[in-house]
Each structure stands twice: as structure tokens, then as C-alpha cells.
């Protein structure tokens, strides 16, 4: 067994897919494998593996994706396809791959990383932390919002990523953690391979301000995406869903955690579940802070921060955070060691949850995930962090 992490290329495709199909328990036909190979080339990514001789023992993929944070686009490394053959598990191979991927992401300028965990506790050990939860609704047709008359029209469309993306982008920038979607992402990850219907709502001025992507099967409607730019579009889309009441018994969909469907209903006692979803971690704290937009203020804010990050040593240590009145900021490493008194001590995962808006500094201090800062200094720092809601409509 070698400890060397190697970059995988197209010549390793068959070995990669053999391991992936075994680990994630699915089977692709020869035609589907050829399609997957072509799709691989369309989505920018780096694939890494560890070999035992000529045999691929473990692998992961890092997708190069844009993600919105504070309305700005950040380069993000999306970790996916982490898998190991059973005979090589619990030998630290995934740990080596994750550490290597962090180094490579930093070198590539991907300042933040996201992943969908098979185990939250496992990835938390490597610095990733929960950053999003969504609401999952399951409604009987009798529980749907009352149908309302609306101006404008619904138009069923097939494909048309440019049209949907124009609506999606306006929606995505409102949340921290939403992807910026390329045409290839729309075609490969959103439209394919599911047999779904896309419907766009045009308001009375002829502007597209909402859409849903959904499927109906065995009297059940599953809404894969529900995007509304305003209340008018929101109500119109729910009325459109309600028009299916003669052919469905129930509707299932996911929405952001700030969605207020239950509050709008005559009877708010519906089936809803809060589901922890993706994890995130800052890859390069100094570079991330340099791009991050803090809340403008009349005065400059300085804070001493001790960051704990054992898997990315460039983040681990003592820093001074200077937030200018404009909201621009600089995170500067101390040459020596700062006095612990008055400094905020925080692990990289909690810092990620804080800056993405998933958790407040007060919440993190209350559960012992952040400590060491005087109350007044903590309040001053928290006032400079934008309030935000996290959401992700995609999966990888």
C-alpha cells in the first residue's frame, strides 16, 4: 500500500466507476457509463485516489463550483464520491484524501468546501460542520393552500436552462450556500435523468418570476424545486399545484428554513420536518475573510481570534481580525502567540457556521463551541456579521 495520493484521469474511469457503483449500491448500463464519462468532462473537477499497486483502493472528487455567500460568488470545492473498498477501510485512506484535497483546494483558490455527509460526526472531525437545514413538507391535497385568482400565466417548458437560470440566480443570491449553476450543471444535474415537468410563472407584466420542477407518479406529486421571487409568484405556484388535486393524493417538497407555508394555511398542522442537510468548512480563512462582506459600521472593529484547525495548518493559530467601517476585512496571523484573555477561541467548523449565518456567536458561546471573548467584544463582533439564511437546492 502506498501513501501517495494521485490525481485520477480518464484512464481511471472504469476503476472509479467500479468502486463507486459498489460503494453507493447502484448499477449503470454500458450506455449510461458512456454518458457518465462524457458528463465528467463537462463538469470541472479534480479526482484523487490512493492505490494498492495497480488497484484503486480509495477515491474522492472535488467539484469546482461557484457558491453564493452574502450575494457574492465564492469558489467552492464540492467533495463528492468519497469511497473505499471494504478491505481498505479504517486504514486512514479517506483522512489522507481529505487533507490532500484541502491543500489542493487552497492552491486552486477554493476558499470554502461543502459536502453531503454519510455521517455528520465523521466529517466534523475534519473540520466540516452542518451549515444548512431545510423544511420538508408532506401535504395531503386537503391541506394545500387555498387556490387564489392570480394575474399572469403559467407556461410549461422543456429544458431552457437560460430561462430558468435567470429566475434561479435572483433567488439564489438571497441565501448563503446556493450554487451558481452553469448550463452543463442544469442539463446534467437538474434536468437529467428524471422525467419531470418544468412550469414557469409569468406575472401580469410578462416577467418570469417563479418556477417549479415536479413529477407526478402513483397519485403523488414530488416538487424538486420551488422558486418564487415574490409573494405573487409564491401564491400562483401553489395555486397551480392545487390544480392537480383530482390526480394526486399528496405533495412532497423541500423549502428553505425561513419558508412560512404553515403560517399562511388555515390549518397549520401539516407534516413538516426540519432536515439537517449539507456540511461546509472554510478552506483558507485569510482568503475567505478577504472576500467576505461584513456589515458596514461607523467604526473599525478589531478582534483577536484563536482558530483551531488541525487538518489545515495554515488556518490553525492566532489571528487579528480587522473589520473596516466599509465592511471589508483582513485576517492577519500573529507572528507570536497572543494573550488568550479576551481572544475568541473557535474551531474552523464553528467559524464556518458563524460566517455563513447558520449559527450566531451567542449560540456558539452558549454551547461551548466558542469561548474566551468578553461579552461586550462578542456583541460588537456579532453586530458586524450579516444575518443570513442558508439553503441549498442541489445535491452532489
UniProtKB/TrEMBL annotation:
<dbReference type="Pfam" id="PF13527">
    <property type="entry name" value="Acetyltransf_9"/>
</dbReference>
<dbReference type="GO" id="GO:0016746">
    <property type="term" value="F:acyltransferase activity"/>
</dbReference>
<feature type="domain" description="N-acetyltransferase">
    <location>
        <begin position="3"/>
        <end position="151"/>
    </location>
</feature>
<dbReference type="InterPro" id="IPR000182">
    <property type="entry name" value="GNAT_dom"/>
</dbReference>
<dbReference type="InterPro" id="IPR051554">
    <property type="entry name" value="Acetyltransferase_Eis"/>
</dbReference>
<keyword id="KW-0808">Transferase</keyword>
<dbReference type="Pfam" id="PF13530">
    <property type="entry name" value="SCP2_2"/>
</dbReference>
<protein>
    <submittedName>
        <fullName>Enhanced intracellular survival protein Eis</fullName>
        <ecNumber>2.3.1.-</ecNumber>
    </submittedName>
</protein>
<dbReference type="InterPro" id="IPR025559">
    <property type="entry name" value="Eis_dom"/>
</dbReference>
<keyword id="KW-0012">Acyltransferase</keyword>
<dbReference type="InterPro" id="IPR041380">
    <property type="entry name" value="Acetyltransf_17"/>
</dbReference>
<dbReference type="Pfam" id="PF17668">
    <property type="entry name" value="Acetyltransf_17"/>
</dbReference>
<dbReference type="InterPro" id="IPR016181">
    <property type="entry name" value="Acyl_CoA_acyltransferase"/>
</dbReference>
<dbReference type="InterPro" id="IPR036527">
    <property type="entry name" value="SCP2_sterol-bd_dom_sf"/>
</dbReference>
Amino acid at each position: 500500500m502506498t501513501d501517495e495520493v494521485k490525481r485520477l484521469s480518464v484512464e481511471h474511469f472504469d476503476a472509479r466507476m467500479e468502486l463507486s457503483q459498489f460503494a453507493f449500491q447502484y448499477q449503470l448500463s454500458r450506455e449510461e457509463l458512456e454518458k457518465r464519462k462524457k458528463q465528467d468532462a463537462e463538469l470541472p473537477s479534480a479526482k484523487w485516489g490512493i492505490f494498492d499497486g495497480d488497484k484503486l483502493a480509495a477515491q474522492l472528487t472535488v467539484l469546482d463550483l461557484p457558491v453564493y455567500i452574502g450575494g457574492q460568488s465564492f469558489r467552492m470545492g464540492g467533495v463528492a464520491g468519497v469511497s473505499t473498498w471494504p478491505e481498505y477501510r479504517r486504514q486512514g485512506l479517506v483522512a489522507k484524501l481529505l487533507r490532500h484535497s484541502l491543500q489542493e483546494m487552497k492552491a486552486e483558490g477554493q476558499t470554502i468546501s461543502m459536502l453531503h455527509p454519510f455521517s455528520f460526526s465523521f466529517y466534523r472531525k475534519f473540520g466540516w460542520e452542518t451549515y444548512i437545514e431545510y423544511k420538508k413538507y408532506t401535504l395531503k391535497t386537503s391541506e394545500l393552500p387555498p387556490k387564489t385568482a392570480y394575474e399572469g400565466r403559467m407556461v410549461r417548458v422543456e429544458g431552457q436552462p437560460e430561462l430558468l437560470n435567470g429566475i434561479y440566480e435572483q433567488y439564489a443570491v438571497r441565501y448563503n450556500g446556493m450554487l451558481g449553476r452553469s448550463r452543463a450543471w442544469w442539463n446534467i444535474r437538474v434536468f437529467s435523468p428524471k422525467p419531470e415537468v418544468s412550469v414557469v410563472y409569468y406575472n401580469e407584466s410578462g416577467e418570469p418570476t417563479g418556477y417549479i420542477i415536479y413529477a407526478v407518479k402513483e397519485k403523488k406529486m414530488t416538487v424538486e424545486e420551488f422558486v418564487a421571487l415574490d409573494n405573487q409568484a409564491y401564491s400562483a405556484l401553489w395555486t397551480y399545484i392545487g390544480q392537480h388535486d383530482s390526480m394526486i393524493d399528496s405533495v412532497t417538497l423541500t423549502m428553505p428554513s425561513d419558508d412560512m407555508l404553515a403560517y399562511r394555511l388555515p390549518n397549520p398542522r401539516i407534516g413538516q420536518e426540519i432536515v439537517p442537510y449539507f456540511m461546509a468548512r472554510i478552506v483558507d480563512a485569510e482568503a475567505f475573510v478577504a472576500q467576505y462582506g461584513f456589515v458596514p459600521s461607523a467604526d473599525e472593529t478589531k478582534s483577536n481570534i484563536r482558530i483551531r484547525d488541525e487538518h489545515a495548518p495554515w488556518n490553525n493559530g492566532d489571528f487579528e481580525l480587522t473589520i473596516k467601517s466599509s465592511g471589508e476585512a483582513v485576517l492577519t496571523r500573529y507572528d507570536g502567540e497572543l494573550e488568550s484573555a479576551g481572544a475568541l477561541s473557535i474551531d474552523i467548523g464553528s467559524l464556518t457556521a458563524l460566517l455563513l449565518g447558520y449559527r450566531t456567536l451567542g449560540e456558539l458561546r452558549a454551547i461551548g463551541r466558542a469561548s474566551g471573548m468578553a461579552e461586550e467584544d462578542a456583541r460588537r463582533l456579532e453586530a458586524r456579521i450579516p444575518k443570513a439564511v442558508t439553503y441549498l437546492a442541489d445535491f452532489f
